[in-house]
Amino acid sequence: MSSNTRTPGRVPAASLALSLAGLAVSTYLTIAHFDAGALLCAEGEVVDCGTVTTSEQSELFGIPVAVLGLAFFAFLTAVCLPFAWRSRALHWVRLAAVGVGVLFVVYLVAAEFLLIGKVCLWCTAVHVITLALAAVLVSGALRRSNL
Questions:
Q1: Tell me: the pLDDT tens digits for 24-83?
Q2: Structural domain contains residue 121
Q3: What is the CATH number of the domain that holds 55?
Q4: Taking a C-beta distance cutoff of 8 angstroms, is the pair 72, 143 a contact?
């Protein structure tokens, strides 16, 4: 493998771990979307997962946001598997996918604060995982370009 196609450090392992974590939380949120009794979260003035996950913003074009998150993390898990790091084309696919994910996080956080007025801690976990995954992939791409 030439030095300009090698991904530095722990980027592949970290991205896979974050993708799997996102997949786990998104799976839970998908289950909770279809079975409100499965949702475990405090309810209060600010934190109220039930209100967030049943709001009008919990679906996009009739598709539950939790299902979109599940699909997103399933895809990223697949493209972050060890064999996938050998493909130069998937490098750009991972970056594009996580870029879309970050934009979606911005939308969802804005919806929570500006439209719903409540915060879902499980959703926040997904948002943090998405941003951490973006940081890992972008920093890895930057280091890769400097090899």
A1: 999 999 999 999 788 888 777 889 998 999 899 999 999 999 999 999 999 999 999 999
A2: yes
A3: 1.20.1440.130
A4: no
